[in-house]
Amino acid sequence: MRIGFIGTGSMGGMLVRAFSQSTPPSELQVVACNRSPEKLAQITSRFPHVETAASPEETVSRSDIVFLCVKPGDAKGVIQQVLPYIRENHYFISINSAVMLEEMEAILPCRVSKIIPSITQVGLSGVTLVMHGSRMHTEERRFIEGWLERISKPIVVEESDLRVCSDLSSCGPAFLAVMLREFAMAAVRQGGIPRDLADSLVKEMTMGVGKLLTEEGFEFEDIIRRVAVPGGITAEGIKVLHPSLHGVFDQLLVTTRSKSKHHGTAEHDHK
């Protein structure tokens, strides 16, 4: 299989690395282009089997699956640029929301999808949001999702739900990291323990909770019930959290939706 990447910035470069780590070179040929040779060099120095292309057109010509990983403002221009090189049997996948699926299908003759990756794919984990165009039939959808399963858990969502879903899966790691950092810093201030110890405890705790939720079948309520014994220390701590957290995530989602509408895209800063 030949997978091409137009753009190897933050998210595009991360996807190249994730696929290169998860799939042997004998099963996957990766070709990539970028306006900045330095960014490509950073990737090829670690993964020598990644091939470079001189242009988006060359990348498309040498690929079966094409990932469009450029900035939102550049997406439509690049699509027009590579249009003469697109074959009907191509899979064309955009990783941003600058162009709707319907718009891409009106321009491109091939099968199209959109995905929203997450920084968690660095660790071959987390969620990739997936939206398919109307030309993608069941087997073709499974084919693309099968490749995404190598680096994440692909979850199909409606394009209209993209904003709020991406807040959870793609922006969420940063939101969660902010809270965890504050938790660790409070332990330093109130308990006097070293920062590295506090950070280590919070990181290991977070990994453990993640495994309970994703591997052991626990729900959020199960963990709360098992840990927060009535009248115990944890239960008292949760009483402190409730008034502070009430409505804060509602306001967060209102804010991100407003910012998204202002920019005319559902993109995130880390892309």
Strand line-up across the major sheet = 3-2-1-4-5-6-7-8
Low-pLDDT ranges: 266-271
Q: Tell me the CATH superfamily of the largest domain.
A: NAD(P)-binding Rossmann-like Domain
The CATH topology of the largest domain turns out to be: Rossmann fold
Task: Please report the total strand number as a whole number.
Answer: 8
Oligomer: single chain
Order of helices and strands: EHEHEHEHEHEEHEHHHHH
Given the helix and strand composition, which structural class is it? alpha/beta
Number of contiguous helices = 11
**Beta-strand percentage range:** 5-15%
Count of the separate structural domains: 2
How would the global form be characterised? elongated
Which architecture of the largest domain per CATH?
3-Layer(aba) Sandwich
Helix content: 40-55%
Terminal Cα span? 26 Å
Question: Any idea of the CATH class of the largest domain?
Answer: Alpha Beta
Largest beta-sheet details: 8 strands, mixed
Rounded Rg = 21 Å
Mean pLDDT: 94
Subcellular location: Cytoplasm
Pfam family, one: F420_oxidored
Function: Catalyzes the reduction of 1-pyrroline-5-carboxylate (PCA) to L-proline.
Family: Belongs to the pyrroline-5-carboxylate reductase family.
Sum up the structure in keywords.
elongated, Pyrroline-COOH_reductase, disordered C terminus, Rossmann fold, 271 residues, P5C_Rdtase_cat_N, alpha/beta, ProC C-terminal domain-like fold, NAD(P)-bd_dom_sf, 2 domains, eight-stranded mixed β-sheet, oxidoreductase, amino-acid biosynthesis
